[in-house]
Amino acid sequence: MRWQCGTRFRGLRPAVAPWTALLALGLPGWVLAVSATAAAVVPEQHASVAGQHPLDWLLTDRGPFHRAQEYADFMERYRQDLQDLELKYLLQKQDSRIEVHSIFISNDMRLGSWFDPSWRKRMLLTLKSNKYKPGLVHVMLALSLQICLTKNSTLEPVMAIYVNPFGGSHSESWFMPVNEGSFPDWERTNVDAAAQCQNWTITLGNRWKTFFETVHVYLRSRIKSLDDSSNETIYYEPLEMTDPSKNLGYMKINTLQVFGYSLPFDPDAIRDLILQLDYPYTQGSQDSALLQLIELRDRVNQLSPPGKVRLDLFSCLLRHRLKLANNEVGRIQSSLRAFNSKLPNPVEYETGKLCS
């Protein structure tokens, strides 16, 4: 796929569209290979006016291959990503190749140090992509903590996780519904019986993978005990203990890691597409830009967290990674909806607001 370039960008002809890396999130490898092969063997003079290969539409959501059952099964089973069993194996080995290196921040505790877990502790992992990694967006596949308790401790860690997809304030994060519905639960693996250390891992896998920029972890503790009358496990809050002098033990967190991968991201190329909405370079380039932005919007929102309504992650991307104003984001979304309604078999869906 080639861009039609105006005088301002004469000579700049990228070989692929700026959203190709994000498009790969939803396409299996053989589809990308077929697309690349077709683009190589068809002469350039057969390209459409809008700069798109005439066969590209066959592989889109609106093409005929999309409705084939075999294609749908293949899309479900062989997405271009790590399979869940492969991911589980790499997590067991704590393979550093799938770790997304991030910055740990907390005013309440330090990694590797014992602390009193009676009160809530807040910690976070952040990437600060706008400062350190402006050319990447990041996908989370799993989150892992190594938690240690002192001997004979009856404490039970309880964690609340909030995920911020592309930056901004804490209010622009979504809550991870651990063990609700079909969402996965924490998996515990014993590491050192003497120190009572366990790896707590939640694996999102291909089904629940999502974008992330910052992960907020709120840690509190509850006391695990047995009810003598019913012989069932019950939990108390630490402040509810009748004997305040009773030693609750101490807790230590050795590691807090996010596993996933990073994707190339070119904000200038997306800004160039947005610029063509008002100032098209050639006849037809505006429609081409709108089609690419719609495809990008759908691919980004495809990784929305679970819920009755998808969250509008695309607006968060425009707001925080492209630094666009609210009115500009609203204008772009309105243009995309208006253009999409004119397409044959338009696909529209309701989204919830996440970023202000």
From TrEMBL:
- The BRINP C-terminal domain sits at 74-356
Q: Which GO terms describe its cellular component?
A: cytoplasm; dendrite; neuronal cell body
Q: Which UniProt keywords apply?
A: Coiled coil, Signal
Q: Which residues form a coiled coil?
A: 68-95
Does the entry feature the keyword Coiled coil, yes or no? yes
Q: Which residues form the signal peptide?
A: 1-33
Query: Methyltransferase: present as a keyword of the record?
Result: no
Query: Which GO biological process entries does UniProt record here?
Result: cellular response to retinoic acid; negative regulation of mitotic cell cycle; nervous system development; positive regulation of neuron differentiation
Its domain of life? Eukaryota
Q: Which PANTHER family match?
A: BMP_RETINOIC ACID-INDUCIBLE NEURAL-SPECIFIC PROTEIN 2 (PTHR15564:SF8), MACPF DOMAIN-CONTAINING PROTEIN (PTHR15564)
Output this protein's name. Answer: BRINP C-terminal domain-containing protein
Q: Which source organism does the UniProt entry give?
A: Colobus angolensis palliatus
Task: Show the taxonomic lineage.
Answer: Eukaryota, Metazoa, Chordata, Craniata, Vertebrata
